[in-house]
Amino acid sequence: MSDGSSGQQGSREGMSGRTDGRKCYKCGEGGHFIRECAEYWQAKARGVPFVSTPYVPPAGRMGRSSVTMEDTARRSRSAEGGGARGDTDDTNALMREYLVQMALERKAKREKEEKEERKRKEDEVRFEKERRKLKKLEERRRAEEERDARLLHIIMGAMRKENEEYSRRDDRKGKGKSKLNKKGETVEKEKERLKRRIAIMTQSEEEETDDEELKLLRKKAEKLELNEKRKRGLEVAVGNSPPMVTPEKRVSTRLSEDSKRRISELKSEAKGEAESSGTPRKINLSMKHIMASCGVGGKEKFEQECRDFYDALTIDELKEVCRREKVTYENREITIKRLVIRRSAMAYDPAHLPLPEIPGVHPKGIAAKETVKKEEEVVSPSDDTDSEDEESE
């Protein structure tokens, strides 16, 4: 009897475990009723088994109810079936979490792939834009090069045509084709340039020859001075022989007309140089109000006053000043600058200050004047001797 009752009880328990009978019509899951749905899902989210609360029906009558053996057996079977139902709920919760996690991973992967695809498309669009831009620039550059080549070809053709017209015109006139040298000059221009160059070279050669002639004249004058200073004593008789008489050496001191004219020109040039080497000449306008001072900033003030004075002059007056001061006139600013530098040098350069007189030492100007006087004395006796020789003849 006991074996039969235990077998029937096991079969009932299995029946009760397989068919719980409780089902929620809200979410469709078993193991709870609709009133326990919220608690069921909260327990599932926390990962704890769900234990349903027993349903207490409303009290209909007062007093103690009689409990039979069948009620006790039924209650024990429901408790055993609750443990199996808790294990099933835990499995369902784990499966649900796994499925939710898999869904989230698939969603994240899909979003990542979509993001990469969008970025790839944006890169492709950007690369395509850059490629089109570079292609347009290359086409524009090629078009500009072709246009420049066409313009150059047109210009070269026009120049060639113009040169042909010029050559044809020269052929008609009988002058022949004009040839150009390496510098791009025609025959006429080259001739003019060479003429100017030859004239300048001949002028410089004449100046050099004039200087050589001046040196030669000075050497002759020195020789004349030495001949005048030479004095001969009386010859003394030696034994029975009479004193030996030697003819006097006569040096030809006669100068030609060209030499005399050259000496007069050199005298005038020496006088001009002596005057120009000293204090500058006075110009038409008065410069007495411009005074050189030795204080701080005196030189700058003097130069500024000179600059203002020259700046007030006209072109003709400025050219006259340049001619007197022996300054080359190029343009107004450079000329004024040179004149100011000359004035400042004459006022502040120690080389232009007069030296104190020392007894027995003659300055350079006095020595030059004495040399000129000696040359005049040398020339005058020679003229007298020439006149005497002519009279004797």
UniProtKB/TrEMBL annotation:
Region listing for Disordered, in residue ranges: 1-22, 58-93, 106-192, 234-282, 356-393
Biased segments, Basic and acidic residues type: 106-151, 159-173, 182-192, 247-274
Metal-binding among keywords: yes
UniProt xrefs under SMART domains: ZnF_C2HC
Source lineage: Eukaryota, Viridiplantae, Streptophyta, Charophyceae, Charales
Transmembrane domains' residue ranges: none
Any one GO molecular function term: zinc ion binding
Compositionally skewed regions (Polar residues) per UniProt: 1-11
Cross-referenced InterPro entries: Znf_CCHC, Znf_CCHC_sf
Bias-annotated ranges (Acidic residues): 383-393
Segments forming domain CCHC-type: 22-39
Pfam families given in the database record: zf-CCHC
Keywords tagged on the record: Metal-binding, Zinc, Zinc-finger
Name of the protein this chain belongs to: CCHC-type domain-containing protein
Keyword Metal-binding: yes
